[in-house]
Amino acid sequence: MLISDILSEVFEYLDDRDENLGSPRKKYDLPVFNYPSFLKNIDYYEMISFVKNWCIYYLDDNTEESISAILRSILKLFVARSTHLNTLSIRSTSCEEKYMLLAEPTIFPLIIPLKNLNINCYSIDRLKMAENSPKVNLLNAFVKQCRHLNTIRVNNLSVNDESSMLVAKKLAKLIERQRGLKRIILSRCKTFTNIIIPSLAKQKHSLRHVGFRGVDFDGCCKWDTLKYCTKLERIDMVDCCNLDNAMISPLVNSHSKRLRRVSIYNCLPIRISDKLESWAYRIDNRKRQHC
Predict the structure, then answer these.
(1) What are the C-alpha distances in Å from 238 to residues 1, 89, 177?
(2) How far apart are CA 152 and CA 148, in angstroms?
(3) Shared domain check, 124 and 266
(4) Phi and psi for 264 in degrees, rounded to 5?
(5) pLDDT tens per residue across span 105-153
(6) Pairing between strand 261-265 and 183-187?
(7) Does residue 1 belong to any structural domain of this protein?
(8) Strands, DSSP E only, in 64-106?
(9) Residue 176 maps to a domain
(10) Which parts of 73-178 are beta strand (E)?
């Protein structure tokens, strides 16, 4: 699905229905294909970049107002044409107002059917979120509207301050509100794992894959939550640090019958990594014996 096709359609639509002209200038012919209905995955950063470049090239205008207006029109078109998104990725660091478009009442129906959500927390941090903010922010919209996510990926939760703590709490609430989360991946997260890990308890009957990549577990709670995930099949731990015996003991001493794949690479401290690798080896042996 080409975003250029959608943009062409949007601008023809807007041109035909320019409110300043009072009436359509010509008959609007629907395209042969309903392009937005084919759209399943959006990288919102790429979408913003494309619209910005389009405005510069065709309109000689890259003001924030123009870019936001075009984005809003495109997103509304997606909603009007019954686009059912499967995956949304948010990874920019300087587009606060443009992110908030996704939380507008006429646009957030677009995010309701989401199955996969990828969030770079750098972009969320810049929203200057506060508990008493009168404005509905982006994460609040996700918590309220997204109930059917299969996968949540959280990247770069790495700043130890009050704003990041609030982000972590909202992410935890988002995890808890899901009706059947199957996969959670934390990447390059350096803080507040003690807030996110306990939220997995609400998904203990559905969670199948947990991934930790470049995660600092300093101050993290015991992994009792993972111990009670009855359908857990896969655990990945890569380049993680500050693990300790008390933290991992509930998991390595559990007897999960469904667990089939455990991958441990380059974790610290080494003695804990060795213990985890021995446990992973036992899991692997058990799998081979049942083959």
Answers:
(1) 34, 22, 27
(2) 11
(3) yes
(4) -125, 120
(5) 899 899 999 999 999 886 554 555 544 332 347 888 899 889 999 999 9
(6) unpaired
(7) yes
(8) 87-90
(9) yes
(10) 87-90, 116-120, 151-155
